Amino acid sequence: MKIYNTLTRQKEEFVPIEEGKVRMYVCGPTVYNLIHIGNARPMIVFDTFRRYLEYKGYDVNYVSNFTDVDDKIIKKAMEEGVDASEISTRYIAECKKDMESMQVLPATRHPLATEEIGGMIEMISALIEKGYAYAAADGTVYYRTSRFADYGKLSHKNLEDLQAGHRDIKVTGELKEEPFDFVLWKPKKEGEPFWESPWGQGRPGWHIECSVMSKKYLGETIDIHAGGEDLIFPHHENEIAQSEAASGREFARYWMHNGFLNIDNQKMSKSLGNFFTVREISEKYDLQVLRFFMLSAHYRSPLNFSAQLMESAKNGLERIITAAEALKRFSDARKAAGEMTDEEQKLYQASEAYQKKFESAMEDDCNTADAVSAVFELVKFINTNASADNSSQFLQKLHDRLALLCGVLGIVTEKEEEMLDSFIEQLIQERQEARKQKDFARADQIRDELAAKGIVLKDTREGVAWKRA
User: Fold this and answer.
1) E-only strand ranges, 211-293
2) Residues 6 or more apart from 68 whose CB is under 8 A from it?
3) Do 119 and 216 contact (CB within 8 A), yes or no?
4) CA pair distance 231, 229, nearest whole angstrom
5) What is the C-alpha separation between 293 and 263, in angstroms, rounded?
6) How confident is the model at residue 170 (pLDDT cuts 50, 70, 90)?
7) pLDDT at 332 over 60
8) 286 phi and psi, to 5 degrees?
9) Whole-prediction pTM value?
10) How many Cβ atoms are within 10 Å of 185's Cβ, its own excluded?
11) Average pLDDT rounded to a whole number, residues 364-391
12) Average pLDDT of 67-71?
C-alpha cells in the first residue's frame, strides 16, 4: 500500500511501526458551532482510509480530538452569557450527531483538550528545560523556533526566509524573541477560562494540545498524522517542532492532507453567502449523498461543491442501492434455491476482478474516485448477470461482495424501512405540543430523529410541512 507523504512529497510504501497495528491521529474540529462541509471532508476521507486499513486486517488505534477551549468558543460563550464549557459540550454533541449521519465511525478515542491540561504543562516545562521555549514577563510561554533545526520540513518553508520577510511585523509590546516564535501558554484574560500553571493562570496554545493528546493516546512516534491541507502550516509544522524537541524522536512517519473544498468554484466564506453546515445539507439530502460526493474525487485534489454535482452523486448512489435491493428482491422470489451452478461459479469468480480493482485503487494512496468506479463496474455486472432465475447462493454472494466494498466506503446499501406517514404526523404533533410547553430540547430531539430518517420539516404560517429527502 502506498501513501503520499506530505513530509517527503512522494508516495511511499506504508510500513507500520508495529506489524499489524496502525496508530493514527486526525485533527478534529474546534467546537463553537455546527460543523460545516469543509470540516466534513477530512472526517469522511480519513474514516474511509481507516475502514480500508481495518478491511486489510490492521488493528487501528484512531484518535481524533475535539478542541474545546479556543478564542472562538470563548467569544460565542460571551455572546450567549454562558460558560465556555456549555458551548463546547453542546457542539460536541451536535458534531457527533452529524458524524453518525455521515456514517463516520466513532474514533477509538475522542480526547478533549480541557481534560489534558496537566500533560500540556508537563511538555511545556520540558521544552523550557531543554531551551526550546521561554517564559515572557507577562506569563506567556513561547516556542523558540530558531532552536529547532528542522523547522519548516513539513511545509517546506525556509525559516530564515520567513523571518526575513516578517521582521517588521512585530507588534509593539510583544515579548517574543522572533516573529515566528509561537505561543505554548497564554495568560488569562478577564472572563476567560483558565488553569493554574508555573507561569501563572492561563490556558494552552492550540498547537500544544494535539502534540500532547497524540503522545498520550498513541505514543511518542505514530504511524499517520492527518488533517486538512490548511493545517500543514503552521499547526502541523508546530506540532512536529514541539513533539520532536520534547521527545528527541520522530513524531509521525506519514503525513496525509486532504485538499480544499470550494463552493461553486469559490472559497467557502460567510461573507460570500456560500457557507453551508452539514445540518443545512441534511435538510436537502440524505448525508449518505454528501459522503458519496466527498469520495468521488481523490482526497488530495481540490473538490468543488455544487447542487449539480450533489444531484449527480445522489443519482450514482441510487444506482448502487438499486442494484443491492434488486439482488435481495431476486433472492426473495428465487426460482432456483440452493447451491451455485457451475456457470454461476464462473460468473462469481469473474466478479472478483472488480474487488481487486477496488483494492488496487485504495492501495494507491486511498484513491476513492477509482474505487467508486470499480463499484460501478460491479453494479453493471450485477445488473447484466443477476436475475430471479439465479440460485440464492449466487445472489447472496454477489450482494455480500457489493456490501463489503460499499462498507469500506461507508455506504449503507440497505435502506431502513420508511416511517409510516401516520407515525410521522404523530411525531410532528408531539413536537408542536413540546414547543407549546417550551420543552425545546424535546422538540429538537424529535426534529433530529425525523431528520435521521430522511424526513425534512418546514415551519410555515399554516403549520408544519414535511417531505421525504
Assistant:
1) 222-228, 252-258, 261-263, 266-267
2) 31, 85, 88, 89, 92, 112, 113, 114
3) yes
4) 5
5) 13
6) very low
7) yes
8) -60, 135
9) 0.86
10) 26
11) 96
12) 95
